[in-house]
Amino acid sequence: MLVVPVQGASAYCIDAVEVTYAEYAVFYDANPPTASQPASCAWNVSWTPSGAWPYSPTTGDEPVRYVNWCQADAYCTYAGKHLCGAIGGGSAAPANFKNASTDQWFNACSAQGENVYPYGATYNASDCNGGGSAGPAVYESWLTCQGGEPGVYNMSGNVAEWEDACSASTGATDACPIRGGSYLDGSGNLRCDSDQTSLPITQPRSYAGNDVGFRCCL
Fold it and tell me: Distance from CA of residue 51 to its chain's centroid?
């Protein structure tokens, strides 16, 4: 993990890269009880990703995909961390998804609100693994996409990332942000502030696709 400063406040830690298949497998093999999940995840009764599982021995360093929000949240808890949310603890408010003083994910991606993309103000297709790049389709170890903090990678492209900032806490249909865009996305969705409007891009808590992974904070 890397230490991320917050302007005028204390720091916190964030994973340098997205959680990998090999890392998720440690959690999966431990098989913690699903009953330990929050009430909003009571519907989730398995830790098995919905696709590409078991993973190939050659893909252990790739970001784990096909995991829903609850599986991502449970992994972070198991690892002694939490799914990135509010600075200071707890869930981030969806309305503050581009507020660097309150949102852990956005603060780290944007270098405390200074950058539009992790690497600067202007989109560059060659810097990160987005839809316009010539890089690999999905591969966690492609470490040319650095920032907003030195040593933090792939916050733009590669896979979009679940965040703890859901619209409600009722269950599988809650709208939860996916941040940073994926290898499928164009420049707008690859920004640190997602879709550039008043609301973040979301998926239902139950969504599990090839374009979404996650990282943890502490």
Answer: 18
